[in-house]
């Protein structure tokens, strides 16, 4: 009976978000409340569970998410993203221009919130298309595959960061494993798949083109890459140090402190403020304005994550999560495949990768303790599933369609297929890594 209640709750969530167009945060709260009543919980226990779930989830994540948004906004507004793109194109040359755009998307996509990255980087694709005479879709898919993968797989993006918390994974190791899984996924969905897209020669919508900043106003190449990748470097280096040292050594303790996601993102933002802003003569007031805009950009996603925390806590407090774990174990399916499959199903139904990943976390988290599966790989498998087959109920689908001036049919044949490749290759990478870690 309890399992049927959970299934009905998820279907109700899909209905409220997809068909009723209800605010996702409100939908999570309504579903959590109704699920608690259906499971026989007292109303006071339900409201307490909702408050606890929101507090527990956001308490450890909100700093990382907000700092990540601030750093990404600085990278974009300062021109660092444009500098990285133009610099890499000069290194790779026109023959390998797709690879330079793909690498740009990967570097910039790590700190840059996905929707912001899409809006800010797509005009750059159009500029390159105009200069080279190559189709915009052919050039754009590799960069957008990179942005999508970093959004779904890698901390400090909101969904992977929340999944790290829910699954009890190490953020540094998750980032390292995520890099190994991300690279083949991006290559397959980007340069390899886009070879078949040269026939899509529609001109981009004129309203979305933008003039690039003059080169003399851009920060240096090394400074741009350093500012964008500092969180990755700190998380990766401290994770490696902790692997090769013991807990009693001072070096381990220093790495443990520096590797804390809050410290990592604080240092990265302070570094970005100086390197990309103050050192280049940007007034402090303007730097703070960029920070304020970044907070507004992620306000909605913070509420969605809080709402998902309420649903997760409700599953835990009602003891349903333990029952679901027992049922799922009885299916004799690899937990990584289960996590991927559930996330993929919710993604196709709801459209939001974030909602798909976080809803899945509340269902499959108990499997980690009972099966011994690597929690970092569960984060990645869930993230991969949450990217599956973006279609008409996903905002990203319509953004791609309108920016690249495509029909719905052609958007499915390009964008939706790219997202599907990213998802399936990601699962394959997780399963392969599970043989070794």
Stretches where pLDDT falls below 50 for ≥5 residues?
none
Largest beta sheet, briefly?
none
Mean pLDDT, to the nearest integer, reads: 87
Distance between the termini: 37 Å
Shape: globular
Q: How many structural domains can be distinguished in the coordinates?
A: 1
Number of helices: 20
Q: Give the tally of β-strands.
A: 0
Structural class: mainly alpha
Q: What is the ordering of alpha helices and beta strands?
A: HHHHHHHHHHHHHHHHHHHH
Determine the fraction of residues in helical runs and give it as a percent range. Answer: over 70%
Give me the Rg, rounded.
21 Å
Beta-strand residue percentage: under 5%
Characterization of the model:
This protein has one domain (2-433). 78% of the residues lie in helices and 0% in strands. It contains 20 helices and no strands.
Could you give a quick summary of the protein structure above?
By secondary structure, this protein is mainly α. The protein is built from 20 helices and no strands. Helix 5 (97-109) packs antiparallel against helix 6, helix 6 (114-132) runs antiparallel to helix 7 and helix 13 (284-317) runs parallel beside helix 16.
Topology overview:
Layout: H1 2-19, H2 24-38, H3 43-77, H4 80-92, H5 97-109, H6 114-132, H7 136-153, H8 158-167, H9 171-194, H10 221-244, H11 250-258, H12 261-277, H13 284-317, H14 320-329, H15 335-350, H16 353-364, H17 366-371, H18 375-385, H19 395-404, H20 408-433
Helix pairs in contact: 1-2, 2-3, 2-13, 3-8, 3-12, 3-13, 4-5, 4-10, 5-6, 5-7, 6-7, 7-9, 7-20, 8-16, 8-18, 9-10, 9-18, 9-20, 10-11, 10-12, 13-16, 15-16, 15-18, 15-20, 18-20, 19-20
């Amino acid at each position: 009976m309890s399992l049927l209640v959970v299934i009905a709750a998820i279907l109700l969530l899909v209905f409220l978000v997809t068909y009723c167009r209800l605010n996702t945060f409100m939908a999570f709260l309504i579903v959590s409340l109704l699920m608690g009543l259906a499971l026989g919980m007292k109303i006071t226990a339900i409201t307490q569970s909702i408050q606890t779930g929101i507090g527990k989830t956001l308490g450890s994540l909100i700093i990382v998410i907000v700092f990540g948004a601030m750093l990404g906004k600085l990278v974009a507004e300062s021109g660092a993203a444009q500098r990285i793109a133009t610099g890499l194109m000069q290194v790779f040359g026109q023959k390998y221009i797709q690879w330079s755009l793909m690498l740009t998307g990967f570097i910039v996509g790590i700190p840059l919130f996905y929707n912001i990255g899409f809006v800010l980087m797509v005009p750059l694709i159009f500029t390159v298309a105009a200069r080279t005479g190559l189709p915009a879709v052919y050039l754009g898919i590799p960069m957008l595959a990179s942005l999508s993968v970093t959004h779904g797989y890698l901390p400090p993006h909101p969904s992977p960061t929340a999944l790290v918390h829910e699954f009890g994974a190490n953020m540094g190791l998750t980032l390292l494993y995520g890099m190994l899984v991300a690279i083949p996924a991006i290559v397959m969905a980007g340069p390899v798949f886009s070879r078949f897209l040269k026939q899509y020669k529609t001109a981009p919508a004129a309203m979305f083109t933008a003039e690039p900043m003059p080169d003399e106003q851009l920060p240096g190449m090394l400074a741009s890459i350093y500012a964008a990748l500092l969180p990755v470097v700190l998380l990766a280096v401290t994770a490696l140090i902790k692997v090769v040292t013991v807990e009693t050594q001072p070096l381990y303790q220093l790495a443990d402190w520096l590797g804390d996601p809050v410290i990592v993102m604080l240092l990265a933002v302070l570094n970005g403020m100086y390197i990309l802003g103050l050192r280049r003569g940007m007034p402090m007031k303007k730097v703070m304005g960029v920070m304020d805009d970044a907070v507004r950009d992620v306000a909605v996603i913070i509420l969605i994550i809080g709402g998902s925390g309420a649903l997760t806590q409700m599953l835990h407090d009602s003891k349903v999560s333990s029952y679901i774990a027992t049922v799922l174990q009885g299916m004799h399916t690899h937990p990584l495949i289960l996590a991927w499959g559930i996330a993929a199903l919710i993604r196709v139904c709801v459209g939001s990768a974030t909602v798909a990943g976080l809803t899945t976390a509340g269902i499959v988290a108990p499997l980690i303790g009972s099966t011994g599966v690597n929690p970092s790989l569960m984060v990645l498998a869930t993230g991969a599933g949450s990217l599956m087959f973006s279609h008409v109920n996903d905002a990203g689908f319509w953004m791609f369609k309108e920016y690249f001036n495509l029909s719905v049919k052609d958007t499915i044949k390009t964008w939706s297929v790219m997202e599907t490749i990213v998802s399936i290759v990601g699962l394959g990478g997780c399963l392969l890594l599970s043989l070794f870690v």
